[in-house]
Amino acid sequence: MSPYQEQKVAELKRLGWSEVGKRHLPGPGRTPAKHVYELSCLQGKLQVFVYPAELFYQTA
Fold it and tell me: What keywords does the record list, in alphabetical order (predicted)?
């Protein structure tokens, strides 16, 4: 987990988001493996994907 991901996942968890899972970020030569962390809000209407250097929100 990158430092950016650690910070953002911790912030979202403090705000009541729950971690759904993580996905491998595909691509050649990724060592160590990079992952995208998926979290959802309590109402389940919004998801956030925490990439190594950015956040991506989408409706569930």
Answer: Plasmid
35-40 and 18-24 beta bridge pairing: antiparallel
- One-letter amino acid at 51 equals Y
Q: What is the chain's length?
A: 60
Q: Which stretches of 1-60 are assigned E, i.e. beta strand?
A: 18-24, 35-40, 46-50, 55-59
pTM above 0.85, yes or no: no
Q: 14 in the Ramachandran plot: left (φ > 0), alpha (ψ -120 to 50) or beta? A: alpha
The range of the structural domain enclosing residue 35 comes to 3-59
Q: What is the pLDDT of residues 11-23, one digit of tens each?
A: 999 988 998 888 8
* Residue 23 backbone phi and psi in degrees, to 5: -125, 145
